[in-house]
Amino acid sequence: MRILFVFLGGLALSAGFGPNSRGDIYRGGYGYNDMTLNYLGMDRNAMNYDQNLDQAMLLDKNVMNRVDTSRNILTRDRLNIDQMGMGRDLKISIMNDKDILRKQKFILDIMRNVYTTLIMDDVRDVAPIEGEMNYNNYDRVIPFFRMYGMKMFLPRGRIFAVSDRVQLRQAVLLFNLFYYAKDFNIFQRNVLWARNNVNEDMFIYSLTAAIFQRRDMIGIKLPSHYEVMPHKFHTALTITNAVNTRMGNLQDKVLIVKNNYTSDITLMNDEAKLAYFTEDIGLNLYHYYLFLQYPYWLGGEEFGLYKQMRGEGYLLLIQQILARYNMERLSHGMGPIKDISLNIPLKNGYNSFLRHYNGLGYSVRKNYYDVYTTGDYYLISRVKDYERRIRDAIDKGYVIGKDGSKIDLYGKNGIDLLGNIIQSNKDSVNDRFYGGLVRLMRKLIGGGYVKNVDHNNVLPSVMEYYETALRDPATYQVYKRVLKLLYQYKNTLRPYTTEDLLVKGVRIMDIRTTKLVTYCDQFDVDVSTIVDHNIRTQTKDTNVDNVVGDKLVFARHTRLNHKPFAINLDVTSDRAQKVVVRLFIGPKYDQFGKKIQLKDNRDNFMELDKFVFDLPAGRVTIKRDSRDFNYVVRDRTTYVDLYKNIVLNKDLNKLLDLNIVESHCGFPDRLLLPRGWVGGMPLQIFAIITRATNFGKGPTILTKCGRNTQLFHVDDFKLGFPFDRYIDETEFYTTNMLFKDILIYHEGMDTNIGMNDYNGMRDITDTMGNLNPGLDVATIQNIGGGRMMQDMMGDRMMRL
């Protein structure tokens, strides 16, 4: 699954990841940029957007200050995307849509303060529009009207969970109502009805999925989900402090409270050391949008997700998340993710301290949790059945279709077929037989499997929500179990030979990087929607209160970031040719300082970048800036800034830029590098160059949420190449690839949440880094007996 990335740098702060149980308050916008402090006014009438848009343009220009230069989009970013074939269709769609600004304003309005009632003269009696002439496929919409007539939809104020089959069915019917609307006006009318009459969480879920799929919504920029539903990204303590701050301060327009991670509240087990990473809002937002772009309940010829290798992409996504997570664990001297079994109590419990909007909390899993305490032995046996059937299919070499036919699992698209049955999506050849393995495991292990009163009253765990699942360390254990199925399959494939890997005449002479430095910065998230309990009303005034309320309340996050860096490849080639360059980062040593064999280490590499390059004959240096990487996105533009920069300014170029560098499904740029150590954490970068074959002619791979934003086919290798197969080291190494040792430095000793030195290896490298700040490449060997050797740049060597 290919996702578009671009970097947003920041200033290094001396603050660490510190606990904050006091709910400290900052008033008057201390430390916040001017753009967020500026207010704006808009009419709330959702039925007359052309008139309202014209009114908005007449507002005092003083509300349109453009001062936050850290968010200026570089022209080179748009040029780089256009050169790769992405962005051209997007640009055409945005520039040719005469209603794009009206649509953008409508979506921003309708998704603001979703938990309050939208009261307008024109929408009091709005009902969903019926009639075959109003829909592209009315047969798919009829079931919605049946359920609507029976008043069976989940009421507002109740907990919505996609893991509940009845609630999911309702969400899919609501999606159909939105998606199949023949034009935007019908779509808009249906959305207005649902805004006030359907469960809030279900409304946002179905609406977002529909926007991602509707062709007339290409280019629409959604407000960040953590601004729409802040309670799913912030602990109850943070939300309570925000509410109390707003209620107790009647003077300041902008209020800021500190965000509290779970590790600030309690240390349930050793996994709490990583709370700053697993509970990072950017990481969880990435996970949410990806699974909403590829919802497992959507598929078939109509949507064509199978053409984008969704099954293969699903497995790659899991592998990449685990690779990144494992590197963060190594930063703390923690070993690999532990295996999980339904027959053995799960050692690590988890309490998210999250709270739903209606006040109910999420279910809690205690330490040494036993899934058999659920009492549902039948479901447990079914999960084991599904896993066994998938393993059997891998061993037998075929899967069973719905008609009982045998389908070859080792054909051209075998890995995609396997991914589909593991995810149990709509493109699975037999979702009934192979079941929903991952979903059921998360339900059982999350601790949320309790006896619910009915389908309108459920109490899920955080593992059952895509926007909260990565907070729980057990999610990574479930994903690791899934990857064991993947590697069982891939280990049966023929390893790549030298002939497969070699590009004759191409040699990577060296890989050079600038100093790789991480640090802790601060980021403010607008949580006003969760603390604003005022009813939304229509008014003729273009007053700020109609859009963002009379106060803005922010939660200040202390989070991991890195300084911009560059990777330079010195390459020689005997002729000019178009090539594909892949860059990876991964560990070299385990938590004990022992070198990991490459055949055992291949699943620990994370792909940083993949790009096409016109390689000239002779010697050349390929320069790649981290801000140009194709798999990351910048920090999200705030809701207020979206309104100002796009709606008020009518800036279509800004809308295009934001769609490119802040694509919904991009991995957060600032999390590219693991935290590292003060003295330098040893990792390695791997680069490989292959020929660009059939460039732009093969199947496309989705790079971001939204249609027509795809990365063209660049070569014939599978996702994750060359680490996607068992490695025969006698055949693997070629001149067109190279491993290079690197060090990741961290500025600041963040010792207050467990970021201490964990082993002798860390102690010595930190000491060496302090003695020799210029050290930027290391090889660590021979740990034991009080001896360690570290090779440094050139021929220098230090012995301790």
Helix content: 25-40%
- Report the average pLDDT across residues: 80
Strand order of the main beta sheet, please? Answer: 1-3-9-7-19-16-11-12
Strand % is 15-25%
Provide structural commentary:
This protein has 800 residues and is an alpha+beta fold. Among the domains are: 269-490, Orthogonal Bundle (di-copper center containing domain from catechol oxidase), CATH 1.10.1280; 498-521 and 557-674 and 686-740, Hemocyanin, C-terminal domain (Immunoglobulin-like, Sandwich); 741-799, no CATH class. Helices cover 33% and strands 16% of the residues. The chain contains 27 helices and 22 strands. The strands form 7 sheets. The chain has an 8-stranded mixed β-sheet with strand order 1-3-9-7-19-16-11-12. It has a 3-stranded antiparallel β-sheet with strand order 6-10-13, with no helix packed on it. A hairpin with a 2-residue loop joins β20 and β21 (787-791). α15 packs antiparallel against α18. The longest helix has 22 residues, at 310-331. It is globular.
